[in-house]
Each structure stands twice: as structure tokens, then as C-alpha cells.
């Protein structure tokens, strides 16, 4: 059976970094450093306050924009929250959902992640659903139980048309921001298990679903990761904060495309 051709996606998660000027400059440098047309989809996720500025800087380029989070309600008495319609209004087409920093630092539970993914889908934002095990879970051999449990919570009982509009990011928690990257073959094995789980629900959509790897992806480790058949791109934190380190990661994904 031939491997379906999935268009790689490289997303830069700027986390709580870069104000208006730095965000705009970085967006322009990234867009200006890509080939045209670009065989890889590239997306950046600035802080909320920079979304409109970055959207303006990216207009007419091939680079898309993601939010780092959203609330599941559209409007109401939810102080501090930002909803899917507002993110669309600001120019987002993607949204990160269930990033491990949201799960660990802000107490986000699987059911919250599911509601957020549903809100994104309702408003035609593509949720990038983040899943991953902690070091303790990995060491006691629970990686697949944890990761597939998170996948089931976010994806279970959705129909194939929803799956077509979603992306998964496998991000082992112990690899995020630590400089420790998963071995490419270990990441590939988890990606295969995620795809197999979703194949039970919707075989064709699962075959086309993009599964990104995230966790200390850098220019010097990305090539091996991108050579894995089920790693369809990367979710990049630290190395996405400068065009000089982000663009070589995109180049490695282009080489795979
Ligand atoms: C992330 O923020 O999703 C991430 C993977 O960060 P880093 O690349 O810095 O590990």
C-alpha cells in the first residue's frame, strides 16, 4: 500500500514572547524567507495582543496564523477569555488546543480540550490537538495509554468530516523546552499508534490526518524526524522565535514534501 501524500505543516508557537514590533518583524522575515509557492504549510502562533498586527503583516503571503488557545464559549461572562469567532475575526485559521503548558500550568482537563476542539470546528478553525506523556508516565511504560487516552478524549465519536479538519501534535512533555528530543523512531512509533487509533474511527481521514512532532525541534535534529513516514511536520517552540532557526526547520520539511 502506498503512503498517502500529506502536505507537511510547520507551526511556530511563540508562547509568551514578542510584543507588537518583534512579532511583526518576525512574521515578515519568515514570510520573506519562504519559497513561492511553498510546498509546506507554515503557521505562526503569536500572543493574543499581536494577532491583528501579525495578520496584517502576513496578508498576501503563504504563512497562516494560529492562536495559542481559545475558550469554548462564543461570548458571555468569561473574563479574560477569547473565543473562536474573535480569533477568526483577528485572522486566525488554526488554534492550538490542549498544549501541555495549558494542561499542566492551567489545569486544563481532557474534557476541556474536547470542548475547545469542538468550538474551533464549529467556527472552521483547525484545531491542532496537542497530546503527550510526562517523563514519569514514559518511565513506567504508560506512554501509549496516556497519549491514546488524550486522543480518544479529543477525537472520540467525531465523524470523518471533523477528522479532515483536525491536526494532532504529539509532544512528549519531557521534551518541551528541555533540549531533549525524542528519538525519531520512538516518535514515529507513537505517531503510528495515534494514526492506527483514529483509523478505527475514519480510515480515509486518518490516512490523511497530519500528525506533527513537537519537543525541542531544532535545525540540527529536524532532518531525522522529518524522514519518518508518519511525522508530517513540527510544532516548534523555542526555535520558532527567530527566523534564523525557524526557516531551516521549514526547509527540512520542504525536503520531505
Ligand atoms: C512547544 O511549545 O510546543 C514546543 C514544542 O516547544 P519547544 O520546541 O521549545 O520544545
The total tally of domains equals 1
Query: What is the correct CATH architecture?
Result: Alpha-Beta Barrel
Q: What is the total tally of β strands? A: 8
- Would you give the CATH topology? TIM Barrel
Structural class from helices and strands? alpha/beta
Q: Bound small molecules, which ones?
A: phosphoenolpyruvate
% residues in beta strands: 5-15%
Summarize the amount of helix as a percent range: 40-55%
Distance between the termini: 19 Å
The SSE string, one letter per element, is: EHEHEHEHHEHHHEHHEHEH
Q: Low-confidence parts, pLDDT < 50 over ≥5 residues?
A: none
Average predicted confidence as pLDDT: 96
Strand order of the largest sheet: 1-2-3-4-5-6-7-8
Quaternary state, please? single chain
Explain the overall architecture.
- The chain has twelve helices and eight strands.
- With 257 residues, the protein is α/β, with parallel strands linked by helices.
- It has one domain: Aldolase class I (TIM Barrel, Alpha-Beta Barrel), CATH 3.20.20.
- It has an eight-stranded parallel beta barrel, surrounded by six helices.
- Helix 1 links the parallel strand 1 and strand 2.
- The chain is globular.
- The protein starts with 8 loop residues before the first strand and ends with a helix.
- The mean pLDDT is 96.
- The site of phosphoenolpyruvate has 14 residues, from strand 8.
- The site of phosphoenolpyruvate (PEP) has 14 residues, from strand 8.
Amino acid at each position: 500500500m502506498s503512503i498517502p501524500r500529506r502536505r507537511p505543516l510547520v507551526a511556530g508557537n511563540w508562547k509568551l514572547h514578542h510584543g507588537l514590533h518583534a512579532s511583526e518583524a518576525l512574521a515578515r522575515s519568515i514570510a520573506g524567507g519562504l519559497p513561492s509557492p511553498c510546498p509546506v504549510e507554515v503557521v505562526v502562533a503569536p500572543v493574543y495582543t499581536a494577532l491583528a498586527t501579525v495578520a496584517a503583516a502576513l496578508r498576501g503571503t503563504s504563512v497562516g496564523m494560529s492562536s495559542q488557545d481559545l475558550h469554548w464559549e462564543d461570548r458571555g461572562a468569561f473574563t479574560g477569555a477569547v473565543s473562536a469567532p474573535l480569533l477568526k475575526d483577528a485572522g486566525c485559521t488554526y488554534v492550538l488546543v490542549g498544549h501541555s503548558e495549558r494542561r499542566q500550568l492551567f489545569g486544563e482537563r481532557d474534557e476541556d480540550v474536547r470542548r475547545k476542539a469542538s468550538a474551533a470546528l464549529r467556527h472552521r478553525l483547525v484545531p491542532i490537538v496537542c497530546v503527550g506523556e510526562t517523563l514519569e508516565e514514559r518511565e513506567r511504560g504508560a506512554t501509549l495509554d496516556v497519549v491514546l487516552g488524550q486522543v480518544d478524549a479529543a477525537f472520540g465519536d467525531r465523524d470523518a468530516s471533523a477528522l479532515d479538519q483536525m491536526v494532532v501534535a504529539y509532544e512528549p512533555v519531557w521534551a518541551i523546552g528541555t533540549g531533549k528530543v525524542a528519538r525519531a523512531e520512538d516518535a514515529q512509533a507513537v505517531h503510528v499508534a495515534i494514526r492506527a487509533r483514529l483509523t478505527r474511527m475514519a480510515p480515509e481521514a486518518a490516512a490523511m490526518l497530519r500528525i506533527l512532532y513537537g519537543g525541542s525541534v531544532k535545525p540540527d535534529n529536524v532532518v531525522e524526524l522529518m524522514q519518518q513516514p508518519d511525522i508530517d511536520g513540527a510544532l516548534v517552540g523555542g526555535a520558532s522565535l527567530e527566523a534564523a532557526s525557524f526557516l531551516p526547520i521549514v526547509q527540512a520539511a520542504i525536503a520531505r514534501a
